[in-house]
Every structure is written in C-alpha cells, then in structure tokens.
Amino acid sequence: MENPIFEIKKELIKWIKNLDDLETIQKVLDLKNFDEPASLVSDAQSEYSRTDDFDERFAKGLNPENARKESKKIIREWWDK
After folding, report:
1. What's the Cα-to-Cα distance from 75 to each of 3, 62, 81, rounded to whole Å?
2. Quick one: which of 4, 1, 7 has its CA closest to 15?
3. What is the DSSP-derived secondary structure letter of residue 18?
4. Are 70 and 62 spatial neighbours (Cβ–Cβ below 8 Å)?
C-alpha cells in the first residue's frame, strides 16, 4: 500500500508538467518560494527551547512536603472543598 501523500505528489507533478498557463506557473513558483510560515514555526520552537529548560525546572522541584500540600490543594479545588 502506497503512502497517500506520495500519490498526491505524483498527481501534482503530472498537473504541473501539463501546465501551460504562465500566470498559474508563477503562482506555483511563488508558493514554492514562500518560506515564511516554516521559518516562523522554527523561530518559535527555537525560542521555546531556549526559554524552557525542563532539567533546570525539575531540579528545583518541590520537596515531598510541599508536593503533598500542592496536591491536596489541587484536589480540594477539583472537589470544591
């Protein structure tokens, strides 16, 4: 069984091969060269990785007594007590 994305890509390639309208070809090229959304995502991910250090947060952690208090507090909030 072939990957459905592969089939879609093959259809697009066939369509582009038979394309004769210069304006449509230009739109496809513009779309191909438009890289902003990908760079925005990578920028956001790199910013997150710089600002969120899980190991550092985990090391600071809660001691067992504070963890118990926080757990009780959250459970009481859930149960409205």
Report:
1. 46, 17, 9
2. 7
3. T
4. yes
The number of residues making up the chain comes to 81
Q: How many CB atoms lie within 10 A of CB 28?
A: 14
- Where does residue 63 fall: left (phi above 0), alpha (psi -120 to 50 degrees), or beta otherwise? beta
Task: Name the one residue in this structure whose structure tokens are 């309208």.
Answer: 21
Distance CA 73, CA 81 (A): 9
Q: Could you report the per-residue pLDDT of 26-67, keeping only the tens digit for each?
A: 988 888 888 765 555 555 555 555 565 667 767 777 778 888
Neighbour count for residue 34 (Cβ, 10 Å): 9
Buried b (16+ CB within 10 A) or exposed e, 35-49: eeeeeeeeeeeeeee
In this structure, which amino acid lies at residue 24?
Answer: T
